[in-house]
Amino acid sequence: MSPKQPVWRRGQNAGLFCVCGKKSQFPEETLPEIAFVGRSNVGKSTLINTLLGRKGAGKNALARTSSVPGKTRTINWYAIDDLLYFVDLPGYGYAKISKQEQAKWGQVIESYLKERRSLKVICLLVDIRHEPSADDKMMMDWLRYYQVPTIIVATKADKVTRNQLPHQKKVLANALGIPSASVYPFSGLNGQGKEELWKALEEKTIFAEASSKAANAAAPEDDISSGA
Ligand SMILES: Nc1nc2c(ncn2[C@@H]2O[C@H](COP(=O)(O)OP(=O)(O)OP(=O)(O)O)[C@@H](O)[C@H]2O)c(=O)[nH]1
Ligand SMILES: [Mg+2]
């Protein structure tokens, strides 16, 4: 990766910060947050690893991924260079999790979305191959209702051909009531869409805060004109 990439994209100083099973455990709202939400197995943890260049098995991977749905059962905060948090929310819609537990998780996620002032943008992940589920649509409604800035990411884009892609984007966009251009195809397998998604996240102002902090922190070493 180019050394000119912003520090947060390099993923070198990213680490698991906090694992929470309930609201009372949420960390203080000290840094801006980007959260990732979607059905179980849609690829949330993979996307976090891919964005931060931390793919692969073993120690290099940041968020744990699995072909078995329901892997992420807690809300996991990842700190990135002490500038921002990525928040991996538990997947919904996994049939083998009891209704009781799903309801409990629904409440924890809703209170996170509703009350988290440091949440700057949320990525709602949907599988590019499928119509959004009733749960996906409900999540979209929540995000609209609570006015959380939202980016729709269509995961597993490597599973469709270039010809199928525009059609699949349209299907997702129509079902969620957004323009087709607002759907970001993404692949954790080959990195497709990574650059576009980073740009979109950065544009959602979150990095206005992070950039100014980073610039301040870097100024003495990097900016030879400062103080001149
Ligand atoms: N082909 C392909 N497979 C993917 C992609 N993203 C994720 N997967 C696979 O899908 C499965 C689930 O990925 P995870 O990242 O663990 O999904 P998750 O949304 O975090 O799942 P939960 O933690 O259970 O909610 C794994 O087998 C991944 O390898 C992708 O872009 N392309
Ligand atoms: Mg996961």
Task: Explain what this protein looks like in three dimensions.
With 228 residues, the chain is α/β, with parallel strands linked by helices. The chain has a single domain (7-222), classed as P-loop containing nucleotide triphosphate hydrolases (Rossmann fold, 3-Layer(aba) Sandwich). It has helices at 7-10, 44-51, 99-115, 134-145, 164-176, 194-203, 206-222; strands at 14-20, 33-38, 75-80, 84-88, 119-127, 150-155, 183-185. The protein has a seven-stranded mixed β-sheet with strand order 1-3-4-2-5-6-7, with helices on both faces. Strand 6, helix 5 and strand 7 form a beta-alpha-beta unit. The longest helix is centred in the middle third of the chain and has 17 residues, at 99-115. The protein starts with 6 loop residues before the first helix and ends in a 6-residue tail after the last helix. The protein binds guanosine-5'-triphosphate and magnesium ion.
Compose a concise summary of this entry.
The chain is α/β, with parallel strands linked by helices and 228 residues long. Helix content is 36%, strand content 18%.
Principal-axes geometry comes out as globular
Major beta-sheet overview: 7 strands, mixed
- The overall average pLDDT, rounded, is 86
Which CATH class? Alpha Beta
CATH topology group: Rossmann fold
Quaternary structure of the protein: single chain
Structural class: alpha/beta
Radius of gyration: 18 Å
Ions, cofactors and other bound molecules: guanosine-5'-triphosphate, magnesium ion
What is the element string, with H for helices and E for strands? HEEHEEHEHEHEHH
| Strand count | 7
- In the CATH hierarchy, the architecture is 3-Layer(aba) Sandwich
Helix fraction, binned, reads 25-40%
How much of the sequence is in beta strands? Answer: 15-25%
CATH superfamily: P-loop containing nucleotide triphosphate hydrolases
Low-pLDDT runs of 5+ residues are 223-228
Number of domains: 1
Q: What strand order characterises the main sheet?
A: 1-3-4-2-5-6-7
Q: Could you give the distance between the termini?
A: 32 Å
Helical element count?
7
